[in-house]
Design brief:
The protein contains six helices and six strands. By secondary structure, the protein is α+β, with helices and mostly antiparallel strands.
Amino acid sequence: MKDNIYALIQKLTPYWGMFYFAFMLIATHFIWKWSFTESLSMGGAPQIWLWQWLDCSAFFDGLVDVICRFIDWCFSKVLGIDGYMVYNHHFYAFEPVRTMVSIVWSCTGMKQLFIFTTMLLCYPYGHKHKCWAIPAFGVVVLLLNLIRLMVLFYHVKNVPSDFEMWHEGSKYIFYAIMFGLWVLWEDIVRKYATRN
């Protein structure tokens, strides 16, 4: 019996990183869900609460504003795309079809940043690499989120009826890319461990 269990553990050892990623993804997802709640203020504006007592609305509101301004700048100055407007946390498209998409606090990429940072912090190896990996991968995760939003808005501008499909699909692609970053992280840590 012990030999069978030991043999099973030996077979699963190469997949430890995948199990860790899946476990941490699920655990941090629920930690995020339990930590943040949303309610409406007396004026009807959403309020974001951390642990039911810390109002994070101003932080997320400012972050959404920065994201809106960045997307507006990228569309108009970098890509030269017109026929839209980003105003008051909404993406408005005027041609070829009039449409509007709200940019809300959950679009900021902070949840994904929290998940990935927690995964790296809790990982039992590669402590020296965490000093550069957490900021570097954090920037990559936030840039991926901005690219995801820009692709979503550009597509919705042309085909508004596909919003739900692209919104949901882009989230899963985002998590798949995060898994790729995780594989890269594990590869870096393994190479470092074999050198020492």
